[in-house]
Amino acid sequence: MKYTDLGLISTSETMKSALRNKFAVPAFNVYNMETLTAVISAARLTHSPVILAISESALKYMGQNMLIGLISGAKISPSERIALHLDHGSSVRSCMQAIDIGFSSVMLDFSKRSLDENIAATNEIALYAHARDVTVESELGELSGIEDENTHNENSCYTDPKIVADFVRKTHTDSLAVAIGTSHGAYKRKSADDKLRFDILTEIQEQIPYTPLVLHGASSIPQDFVDDINKFGGNIQDSMGIDLEQLNFAATQTNICKINIDSDLRLGTTAAIRKYLATNPAIFNPREYLSAARDTVQDYCIFLIREIFKSYNKI
Fold this sequence. Notes:
CATH superfamily: Aldolase class I
Number of strands: 10
Order of helices and strands: HEHEHHEHEHEEEHEHEHHEHH
Number of helices: 12
Mean pLDDT: 93
């Protein structure tokens, strides 16, 4: 299926607009009907372009037919500037399969491979994707942390500014995910003093000024979500995310054009369900507590769109 049949767009045009106008397109990871509809609703209410990010594990969980059915049922219009993105594709084959079923954007994550392997594989998928007007994202540098069975790494290393221009030239990638101090999961910083390496980012964008850059592992880990989870039976300790002021700076003052958010939506979903069930002990209708989760995710996405990424009214 072609993504245009689903009303979706390729991310290239939106990313270029973000680069020119200094905002970041939010890429929210979704994994069921509630998170999917929450993100789409937030985008519609704020007139913001948005990227629906699907990891390989989320795709396996939902099944490709169910996912495409949900997208079709959302009745998306191209004027809404919504893209469907494979997040952290682990192989050229998985990226090709995603393109074939209707994804409009794919990320090939070969950042843990050798540089030559990364270049060869990214170039291969770029040739396949661009023939179908699909956008390609790649990554240089490694982010530590654990998000799910598909996204986990014990190592971290910053992106080397010296190699980015040659990498982009040889791979024909449309955008580049960079490692400047973010990480996956709910434990991103050891202290509030930890800062993103904007000095490295400056060097990178000097080398590739016209290439949209991407920030992975950028959840802020809202403390109120963590507090509610712990208050109502959970046990999440010492979690710390990326400072919102730093994310806002990245979105509005640099060439970061796409910012990925996953853990925040998981925490919001879990916090809302735990709180609803604990404060409404007689309720056993899943529609009620899942609706509370959907509303929480929607409201948080709206907050990020309006206050942090500044993609509000940027369609």
